[in-house]
Design brief:
The protein is mainly alpha-helical. The chain contains 18 helices and no strands. The chain is globular. It comes from Asanoa siamensis.
C-alpha cells in the first residue's frame, strides 16, 4: 500500500513542477502578465487545499481507489487540454480548476488517510516517505520538462505531464485497497483485524470536523503555521524561483535543475523528519523547521547570480532538507489532538497551507510586476517563517486543555473543552 501510494503521488506530482517551468514560455507566446499567470497558479493552489478535506471524507465514503483514480484522470485532462487553450480564462479553468481539484484529491490528506488506516507503528516514518513522493515527482519531472520546453515546446511538456498521470491509473485500480480488513489483515503494528468504520456523508463529515476543530486553539495555531509553510514553499519558491533566477541571468534549465535538487534533498529531509517525529515532540520539530527556513529565505536574495555559486548550492541543500519536513509532525499533531478525525482535520489544516500558497503566488507576481524584482517577497517570506516557529512553540502552552475530546471520541452533542 505504501509503495503504490508513493507511485500514485509521483504520477500526480508532475503538474506541481509545471507552472514554474512554463511561466516564461506562456508569457512569451501569449503576452499575459506574470500576475495573470500567477493568478491561475493561485486558483490551483487554493483548490488544491480546499479539496483536500472533502477528498479525505470522500475516501471514507466511496473508497480510496475510486477517489485517487478519478483525481489522476482530472490531472491528465486539465494538463492535456492546455495545448488547445487560447485565453487566460482557459488557463485558469484548466490549470486552476481541473488540475487544482485533481491534485487536491491527491494531496497530503491522502497521505494522512493511508497512514491512519494502514499503520499503527512507524506512522511518522511512512508519512515522511509518502510525503517525499511529491518531492520525488518534482525531482523526476522538473529537469525533463525544462529540457522539453527548451528543445521542443511547452505543449509537449504539458502532454508528458498528462501521460504520466494517466499511466498510474491502472496501477491504482489494480492494487490500491481501502482498508486492511479488505485483505483480512490488521494494520501494521496492530494486533487484531478491525472492521472499517461506517461510511457517512462526506460533506457533512468534512464540515463537522472543521466546525468542532475550529473551536480549539490548537487548530488555529496549526493552521496558521501551515499557511505560512505553504506561502514559503509552493506559493513562493515553487512558483517563482525559476523566474527569479532567470531575472539574474541564469538559464531556465539551470534554475529548474536547482529546483529539482531541492526535491532531491527534500526526499531525505522528509523521511528523516518522519523518523524524528516517531521519537521527539512534534512541536519542537516544527519550531526548528520554520525558524531555519526563515533564516535561509532572508539570505536568498544575496545568492542569486548568472551562474551557480557554492553559496547557492548550500542554500539548495539546506532549504531542500526543510521543504516539507513540516508535514510528518503536523500530521502527528492533528492525530494527537483530533484522534480518529485527524486525517479530515489535517485536510483543513492543509487547506490553510494552500491558501497561504495561493496568496504568496499572486503577491509575488504583483511584486515582480510593480518593482521589477522579487527581493521584497523573499524578505517577507523569511520573517513570516520565523513567526510560524513561534506559533508552533505556542502549542506547548496549556496543550492538555487543547485536546478536543468530542472530536477524538466522535461523541455527538458534546461541547469542546
Amino acid at each position: 500500500m505504501a509503495a503504490v501510494s508513493f507511485v500514485a503521488l509521483i504520477g500526480a506530482a508532475g503538474f506541481r513542477a509545471t507552472p514554474s517551468v512554463l511561466i516564461h514560455p506562456l508569457h512569451a507566446e501569449f503576452g499575459w502578465p506574470l500576475a495573470t499567470i500567477s493568478a491561475a497558479v493561485s486558483v490551483n493552489l487554493l483548490l488544491f487545499g480546499l479539496t483536500a478535506p472533502f477528498a479525505a471524507a470522500l475516501m471514507d465514503r466511496f473508497g480510496i481507489r475510486r477517489v485517487v483514480a478519478t483525481a489522476l484522470l482530472l490531472v491528465a485532462l486539465g494538463s492535456g487540454l492546455t495545448v488547445l487553450m487560447r485565453t487566460s480564462a482557459e488557463l485558469i479553468l484548466l490549470w486552476g480548476v481541473l488540475v487544482g481539484i485533481g491534485t487536491g484529491s491527491m494531496a497530503l490528506a491522502f497521505v494522512a488517510t493511508i497512514t491512519g488506516r494502514w499503520f499503527v507503528k512507524r506512522r511518522g516514518l511512512v508519512t515522511g516517505v509518502l510525503t517525499a513522493g511529491g518531492a520525488a515527482g518534482q525531482l523526476i519531472f522538473l529537469p525533463v520538462l525544462a529540457v522539453l520546453v527548451e528543445r521542443s515546446s511547452w505543449r509537449v511538456a504539458s502532454l508528458v505531464v498528462a501521460g504520466a498521470a494517466l499511466a498510474v491509473v491502472p496501477l491504482v485500480v489494480w492494487l490500491l485497497r481501502d482498508h486492511p480488513s479488505d485483505l483480512g489483515l490488521p494494520a501494521y503494528g496492530a494486533t487484531s483485524v478491525e472492521p472499517p468504520p461506517p461510511a457517512g456523508g462526506a460533506a457533512r463529515r468534512a464540515v463537522g470536523a472543521l466546525r468542532d476543530a475550529s473551536r480549539t486553539r490548537a487548530f488555529w495555531l496549526l493552521a496558521g503555521g501551515f499557511a505560512i509553510c505553504g506561502a514559503t514553499t509552493n506559493g513562493l519558491v515553487g512558483t517563482h524561483f525559476i523566474p527569479a533566477a532567470h531575472d539574474h541571468g541564469m538559464t531556465e534549465t539551470t534554475a529548474a535543475s536547482l529546483l529539482a535538487l531541492i526535491g532531491l534533498f527534500d526526499i531525505a529531509g522528509t523521511i528523516a523528519s518522519g523518523w524524528l517525529t516517531d521519537r521527539f515532540d512534534s512541536r519542537v520539530l516544527l519550531g526548528a523547521y520554520y525558524a531555519l527556513r526563515g533564516g535561509s529565505l532572508l539570505l536568498l536574495p544575496m545568492l542569486f547570480g548568472d551562474a551557480v555559486r557554492p553559496s547557492m548550492v548550500v542554500f539548495i541543500l539546506f532549504y531542500g532538507l526543510d521543504w516539507v519536513a513540516t508535514v510528518p509532525p503536523t500530521v502527528a499533531l492533528c492525530r494527537e489532538y483530533f484522534g480518529d478525525r485527524g486525517a479530515v482535520v489535517f485536510g483543513w489544516v492543509f487547506a490553510s497551507h494552500q491558501i497561504g500558497a495561493a496568496v504568496a503566488a499572486s503577491a509575488a507576481g504583483l511584486v515582480r510586476d510593480r518593482l521589477g524584482e522579487y527581493d521584497l517577497a523573499w524578505y517577507v517570506a523569511g520573517l513570516l517563517a520565523i513567526g510560524a516557529a513561534g506559533l508552533s512553540l505556542a502549542l506547548f502552552r496549556g496543550r492538555r486543555g487543547l485536546v478536543l475530546a468530542p472530536v477524538m471520541a466522535g461523541a455527538p452533542g458534546s461541547a469542546p473543552r
